[in-house]
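Field reference: "sequence" (input) and "structure" (output). Example, PAC2 family protein:
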Amino acid sequence: MARHSDLYRLIEPVPDLRSEDGRGPVLVHGLEGFSDAGLAIQGVSEYLRESLDSQLIVEFDVDELVDYRSRRPHLKYSFDRFADYNEPTIQMHAVKASDGTSFLLLSGLEPDLKWDGFTESVIDLAGSFGVRMSIGLGAMPLGVPHTRPTNSSAHASDVDLIKGFSAWPGEFSVPGNVTSLLELRMAEHGIPSAGFTVHVPQYLSQTAYPAAVLHLVGSIAKIADLELPTAELEKAAEEFTAQVNAQIAQSPEILTAVELMEKQYDEFMETRLGSDSLNPGGKPLPSGDEIGAEFERFLAQQTGDGGQGDDPQRDG
């Protein structure tokens, strides 16, 4: 049994996770809290669990790992009583890809506490399950237009793992987070580790963004050689983009800002000059917050006029 079993409960029986050729499973980990622009990490986890055959095999003790006062769980109040409690979870599922290959999915809230104990627990579990590679997921808001292909920044313990993917250049310091720490610690324990941080338009980062989920699922499938379904995500991304385009077309201010962002994004992609993808041309560019604020004002006006049209900022 793993050394830090006090932080989790193993749920028996655990299925055989090895492939027909004897390879161990891939571990995909996406924890919500630090880097989940466009609700992409939550979206990937829910999509993989719900669209594929999945089995809960590990439950972590959230009482030991989560500070409830910093992220208060929701309770449902119904008329004269409290009716339900949205209990936070940190779980690991065994999931079967479309071709029958098993992989592991670690999802839920990013721990507030005991990062060392948590990462060591995950590494111990990875060792006992024979994990052959780990893949971390993140999503960050950037000054990119929604009308262009979704991209991500890849990173890995071995550059050969991410050949064919785009990596973020340079060296810099970033705020600590458990997903990145897991990527580092896995590599230190001899488990090849990679990760993808998908780029989400800043002005849409507070709403569910299906294109980011689609991109991450595709990246997982490619690097891990897994067969994962994407038809439902492709349809959702197309419908969402159409809704946003229709609403933007009715606001000259937003349309002008997005067109300027498109122009500067295209110039950057063509020239690859500089490393500042937030403002590649060095020209005045409305911030994502400014576009987002204008977008929210526009949506509020539409609601005030009778709520015509679908609001892409509402889930489902």
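The mean pLDDT is 86.
Strands lie at 8-10, 26-32, 53-60, 75-78, 81-85, 90-96, 102-109, 133-142, 152-156, 193-201.
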